[in-house]
Amino acid sequence: MAISSLLVPLLLLFTSSSVALGNEVGNIGHYPVVVSTWPFKEAVRAAWRAIDSGFSAVDAVVEGCSACEELRCDGTVGPGGSPDENGETTLDALVMNGATMEVGAVAAMRYVKDGIKAARLVMQHTRHTMLVGEQASAFAISMGLPGPTNLSSSDSIQKWSKWKEDRCQPNFWKNIVPVDHCGPYHPKEIAELGEGTCSNANLMAAVESRSSHIGLHNHDTISMAVIDKEGRIAVGTSTNGATYKIPGRVGDGPIAGSSSYADDEVGACGATGDGDIMMRFLPWVVESMRLGMEPKLAAPDAIRRIARKFPDFVGAVFAINKNGLHAGACHGWTFQYSVRSPEMEDVEVFTVHP
Fold it and tell me: Which residues are catalytically annotated?
């Protein structure tokens, strides 16, 4: 899923050359260019092949994210990963055309393995922005995508079974009973947790740090931006969501301006991390940029604002302006993003430290 909230504002981005300042990295670039969260090199190569062959930015984004879905990047993209509490894998995806501001997205989609292609079909063939759940699946299949397909794998089922053996810990519930067992869960007032029915350990579980839910292999999103040879910009995201999420949960992944955003007049951004937190903070960055703060300051400033409210949150963002200049910022982990541009012989990975 994806730092969602930082995205739209970061669009104006950086003018510094090959710098590393705190939690930001910047580099001069030119278009065409492909940028992606994480060292997903094969996904970036797939997008670059498309863009280098003259395809549009939208087509290249779809090619790149599709490659990651097929490769099941880190187990957090595409089918066969990140089971929910019921052991099922569902997909979220988004594609946005920065020239027309059209968006297509699917969320909590079952039975169809091609998330990003389904999102593009929503953009191409409907006047809607997002379709969800089984209705999204039915739409995608009616438009010619393969399905219905079981999106689980032996790996995802094994992971889910181990989680059940560990008493369904960690999970995304709060203020409920039972605290340290599997459900069904029921609401319980926080005050009642101290009445002797729960141990101190259970009390701690009720306020467990969110950092245990998101890590380097549970960051749950590829977010990609492409500027094509004509200078047109598109972004896309694809994810199978947070591992052990409550069924029906949708994070920042399929939300335009949350997981990614594109505007030909400015640039694009993409995010990864704790989408449930990051999707709440978008306006701060937008307003900072609107008030004249430089993007290289707005990005880490936004992350600091989130950290003041949620000091345990984990997330990262990359940003690229319309001229191909790119940079990244992060909190709670070391972040890497991948880039391919004309002056590079192959994909290069940039590292950003918190």
Answer: 221
